[in-house]
Amino acid sequence: xxxxxxxxxxxxxxxxxxxxxxxxxxxxxxxxxxxxxxxxxxxxxxxxxxxxxxxxxxxxxxxxxxxxxxxxxxxxxxxxxxxxxxxxxxxxxxxxxxxxxxxxxxxxxxxxxxxxxxxxxxxxxxxxxxxxxxxxxxxxxxxxxxxxxxxxxxxxxxxxxxxxxxxxxxxxxxxxxxxxxxxxxxxxxxxxxxxxxxxxxxxxxxxxxxxxxxxxxxxxxxxxxxxxxxxxxxxxxxxxxxxxxxxxxxxxxxxxxxxxxxxxxxxxxxxxxxxxxxxxxxxxxxxxxxxxxxxxxxxxxxxxxxxxxxxxxxx
Length: 315
Description:
The chain is mainly beta and 315 residues long. 6% of the residues lie in helices and 33% in strands.
């Protein structure tokens, strides 16, 4: 790796152990100068270079003596080590044109929803001027065999030509696609590729660098985004604490999703300082965010929603 490439990566302050994002010449926490050294060639490379140079040029040295053995820089010492963050080799799609427009009008005053995933796959629902309740024991339409559906889980109805989804306060909640970027608050939940996450807010590293300090991994000078995965039944899973941005994709991202192992970022959680936004680039089946209890959202053709274990699409 070249010095130019190394200069684009964060390094750790050798005085206070805070991880600093480039480009910086001084630590953001303590003000100490930051040093980045490019390691020299390995022993094998140095030996090869020495042999190549000595093979045809020994006679040209003064007195016919062979050249001195080539020197090399050993790996940097403890006080010279740069903590190199993993380089992002993933790509971000430059368009979101494929995403549905939320809140479109239905000229006919009717809407059709089809279950595209779950035990009721293939089921078609027609929504007109009469509200339709969905749940495990709803009068409008019951879906049996789904343990994540409440008796009355959600209600769909038309309002001035627009299709509205209303959450009825279920434990599993209702999720729908949304227009991005979307500002998040601590506690907001979303679903990406069948995986459920809860955004926990931000965390800023303490600035107290007084010794002695407990040993641990270097800290970034930027504030961290905290994210928790939630498993079925409400069990808490992996916790992420990442400075600046949390990326979701099928390879090389902070959160690796199951799917085709390409290098595309599907979506990102981005800290802008005054707000934290969730941005969808090309998430299959859409990026779904949870409605607040008793909350409502406008839907349009192409929108997706999730009720219990069923995923539906508006036609």
